[in-house]
Amino acid sequence: MNNNEKKILLCEDEDSIRDFVIINLERFGYKVTGVGSGEEAIEKFKATPNDFIMVLLDVMLPGIDGFTVCKEIRKINNVVGIIMLSAKSQEMDKVNGLMLGADDYITKPFSPSELTARIDALFRRISSSPVTPMISQNVDELVSGDFILNTRSHVLTKKDEIIDLTQVEFQLMEQFLKNPNTALERTVLLTNIWGEDFFGDEKIVDVNVRRLRMKIEDDPSAPQHLSTVWGFGYKWIE
Question: How does pLDDT run across 41-51, given as a tens digit for each residue?
């Protein structure tokens, strides 16, 4: 493991919370860089876009809010893990953050154990996946119609055009293409992707599927491939 693998960028404007998070995460081996505004976060990330494996973003910030920062970071890096932190518990705030590319959402106040568990789970998912293309003569591919998912380089193409995916979106596509025409239960997807120790709401599956549809379907409102099995889960139709 190199020195960059456990680096986290924390954007939190309240000094006491920022210090609290840094102290607790550094106890578990993470190296945390703290900033107090969205502008600082974007500047810091742009300067070293491949330096951090994860970003923790407070939603309510002076100036640029956390949602905007999340959107800007996703334009730069589609692989880095993003967790939103917010005192708000409204459903739409969670949906907005996830739709903009966040991987998870934690509502304040949170315990050190909950925060660490969420970060550990996301870190395991990210660190187990390659973040740069690998050249190999034995390329593993999952093919379904116009779609080809390269499981080594983590690249999805549709009619030879690359579709940018986050780590979660890639893992969802992998689950669906490995189980074509099979209804996959939400709880199964949640366990396989987010892990058995995930603390959050299973609706995170629905939001990420919605985001994935927007990238892969010609008409996301009338999906031809990623179908909903009402009251159960989702199914990939070949």
Answer: 999 999 998 88
